[in-house]
Amino acid sequence: MTTNQAIDPVFVFILGACLVLLIGITAAMITFVIRYRRSRAPEPTSQVEGSFWLEIVWTALPTVLVLVMFYYGWSGYLALRRVPPGALKVNATARMWSWNFRYENGKSSNKLMVPVGKPVVVLLESQDVIHGFYVPAFRVKRDVVPGMKNHVWFMAPKAGSFDLFCSQYCGKGHSAMITTIEAVPEAQFNHWLNEEKEEGKEKGHKLDGAKIAQEKGCLGCHSLDGTTGAGPSFKGIYGTKVKVTRDGKPMTVTVDDAYLRESITAPGAAIVDGFQPIMPTFGDLTPDEVGALVEYIEHVK
Amino acid sequence: MSLPATSSDGFWSDTGKTGIASWIFSTDHKRIGLLYLYSVLGFFLVGVLLGVLLRLELMAPGRTIMGPQTYNATFTVHGVVMIFLFIIPSIPASFGNLVMPIQIGARDVAFPRLNLFSWWLYVIGAVIVLTALFTGGGPPDTGWTFYVPFSAKTGTNVSLAVLGVFVLGFSSILTGINFVTTIHRLRAEGMTWGRLPLFVWSLYATAWVQILATPIIAITLVLVFVERVVGTGLFDPSRGGDPIMFQHLFWIYSHPAVYIMILPAMGVISEIIPVFSRKPIFGYKMIAFSSLAIAAAGSVVWGHHMYTSGMSDTAILVFSFLTFIVAIPSAIKVFNWVSTLYKGSISLEAPMLFALSFVLLFSIGGLSGLVLGAAATDIHVHDTHFVVGHFHYVMFGGTGFAFFGALHYWLPKFYGRRYAEKPALVAWALMFVGFNIMYFTMQVLGIRGMPRRYYDYLPEFARLNLVATIGSWILVLGLIILLVNLFRGLFRGEAVGANPWGGATLEWSIPTPPPTENFEEDPVVTHGPYDFKGAGKP
């Protein structure tokens, strides 16, 4: 069973029942207003102050109805919580304002590649504030809370590209913290999962700084075209002198290899004036990857 | 302020002080009620302006009129202003003060000076909140929910804003204490609990929630303040804290707070519908009881804001169940209001139109709340525009429309003059149509998966967002007509007598405008609040 199959019938039931109730209430109101309007009914024809039995009826019926809704709502929710055995495990890391997905073999990606028709469980981890993992197409959502081990599972019913939103407000780039789930046939998925990793092993090839900047979400805050985002633009920054605050003291530093390296590994150490100390620590970067990033930033002109 | 039309100026003239001091240092509940009324109306207009700007920005994808930081600050300030400065004090502090003491046959509230102090606290809190917008790191960008760790990290001026809300909380608590004491101690002879107008019952239930729940938000916001200033790490997992704990503390107040917002509105509706049907309210006891039931049960459902947070499934089971239970008393109220119309003599004047549209809009909001109460469906629509649509249906379509109904229903009593009927009908129609275009569309957007607090969105959401924005223009046009017509009427409109609507509660038995002491002689109550047989002709 997919998550859609668990949730959609509950939607149909609750929305249907609500619609019937709403039509009933509206129809009664409109009928009464027309029939008993003052021009037609100059005096009230009843001064009745209540009815014990009616109160019983319209207390009991809604009680039954909401209990049924509660039950369906709960059983549908349980389906979202029961991860099918053998589900593919993916680690998701959320940070302001990007997603990164890591597979068990070490492969990482900023799009969530999954095989069609296979259950996938995503283990959620936040590096800074609370984010939300939301895939409308699969009706699943789970907050990504720092210090908490949350998870979410789903199964893509068909091949395609499905939007993945951040649903928990996380600051300036919240609405840009979106990516996609790419559901592909299993064979294609397995091929993708294993290709680059092996390639990398064989050739020991040079790391691509541009690709890392893209995948780690650097570009969400640091633009390439000179526009100011949540952080300084990469464009032409290498070699310039910037005013920073280090240990509470203002000073001027030159943006060189050492400063860039420090800014990536310990982002809070020396913040450029005019920016907030909000950049997360990228603890999963290897020294080689940091080096590749520094080299890449050096060449953004 | 210009004077009312009748020969006796009532509480407008009879005062020891003069000029502005006769208002801002007055202990007369009617003057304090009007102080509150104009304060909350002012902030309502600020909130509306911000809301219109938000809708303009969302009219098309990408940047329309502002950048993301400004947008985030705008929706935060819209929420803070609307919730803490408008809707929480709106009906209880303005109409509660104006009407409640008269309705129970009292000369004033139990603690008139404390009452004035509450208003001053409100003003001080409001000034602090406004100061926060223009000082420090700029207006807060956390959303009105102030969720940690974001609110502990952001460089914007959150500390001062939460301090302002802290002060506002005390204003609310003191009003609650005052009203509970007043209703217990100052009822006139013969004003038994069974003869209390339902508006008073609703204020009574509300006051208890204000007293019991508000301290929790005050403490929580102090914790955020301390977290930011001292760095205690209470909510920081890397130092053993827990961000989810903040959400519990926040919603322990903020969910009951929605009942602080809606219960007085339900009270207003329970006054207007019988008067304009000329028929006793159907099921008086059940409506009064359901107010208390909502206040009590509503205090233990806060966890339904947190189904996706990662709190335990057992907690979700319990909170979902309790949430559905709280739906029952609300349904009872709706059925009783509709039944009151049966075999009545219904007059569709402005207060009644707002009251009837309240019932409809509140029903839509309440029913969409069932989608949010059920665990399975909430997961999909949580934190989407569905939620935004839902609470605007309840808070704006509910409390807002009840507030507009109350403005038309009660203000003529205090000004001695009334609005013109036809422009009021036009205003109501525009607002009703614009409201539904705007917020129903938002609910559809949410079901389609558009998250809330999104500055930018994917092209697939563009058309519905445009529709919602157009709805906001119609709504605002109606609102402008409403306010112009209302206040034009209050100062220059047709004069009204003591009982323009034929009401049977005590405020209609005294002269218009009410004298400073309300009653020349202490009244003796001999009939129920909706006994129209003895009431005068309109």
TrEMBL record, chain A:
Gene3D superfamilies in the record: 1.10.287.90, Cupredoxins - blue copper proteins, Cytochrome c-like domain
Job of this protein: Subunits I and II form the functional core of the enzyme complex. Electrons originating in cytochrome c are transferred via heme a and Cu(A) to the binuclear center formed by heme a3 and Cu(B).
Top-level taxonomic group: Bacteria
NCBIfam families for the chain: CoxB
E.C. number: 7.1.1.9
Species: Geomesophilobacter sediminis
PROSITE patterns on file: COX2, COX2_CUA, COX2_TM, CYTC
Domain Cytochrome c: 204-301
Protein name per UniProt: Cytochrome c oxidase subunit 2
Reaction equations catalysed: 4 Fe(II)-[cytochrome c] + O2 + 8 H(+)(in) = 4 Fe(III)-[cytochrome c] + 2 H2O + 4 H(+)(out)
Cofactor annotation: Cu cation
Record-level GO BP terms: ATP synthesis coupled electron transport
Uppermost EC category: translocase
Similarity remark: Belongs to the cytochrome c oxidase subunit 2 family.
Domain Cytochrome oxidase subunit II copper A binding, residue spans: 85-195
Transmembrane annotation, as ranges: 12-36, 56-74
Pfam family, one: Cytochrom_C
Subcellular location: Cell membrane; Membrane
Topology in the lipid bilayer: Multi-pass membrane protein
Any GO molecular function: copper ion binding
Cofactor comment text: Binds a copper A center.
Automatic annotation (TrEMBL), chain B:
Domain of life of the native organism: Bacteria
Membrane topology, from the record: Multi-pass membrane protein
Compartments where found: Cell membrane; Membrane
GO molecular function, one term: heme binding
Alphabetically ordered keywords of this record: Cell membrane, Copper, Electron transport, Heme, Iron, Membrane, Metal-binding, Respiratory chain, Translocase, Transmembrane, Transmembrane helix, Transport
An example Gene Ontology biological process: oxidative phosphorylation
UniProt domain Cytochrome oxidase subunit I profile: residue ranges: 23-526
Known pathway: Energy metabolism; oxidative phosphorylation
EC numbers on record: 7.1.1.9
Keyword Ligase: no
Annotated spans, Disordered: 515-538
Gene Ontology CC entries for this record: plasma membrane
InterPro entries, sorted: Cyt_c_oxase-like_su1_dom (IPR023616), Cyt_c_oxase-like_su1_sf (IPR036927), Cyt_C_Oxase_1 (IPR000883), Cyt_c_Oxase_su1_BS (IPR023615), Cyt_c_oxidase_su1_bac (IPR014241)
Transmembrane segments: 35-56, 76-99, 119-138, 158-180, 201-226, 246-269, 281-302, 314-332, 353-376, 391-411, 423-442, 462-484
Enzyme class, spelled out: translocase
Record field: catalytic activity: 4 Fe(II)-[cytochrome c] + O2 + 8 H(+)(in) = 4 Fe(III)-[cytochrome c] + 2 H2O + 4 H(+)(out)
Function: Cytochrome c oxidase is the component of the respiratory chain that catalyzes the reduction of oxygen to water. Subunits 1-3 form the functional core of the enzyme complex. CO I is the catalytic subunit of the enzyme. Electrons originating in cytochrome c are transferred via the copper A center of subunit 2 and heme A of subunit 1 to the bimetallic center formed by heme A3 and copper B.
Family per similarity comment: Belongs to the heme-copper respiratory oxidase family.
Protein's recorded name: Cytochrome c oxidase subunit 1
Annotated source species: Geomesophilobacter sediminis
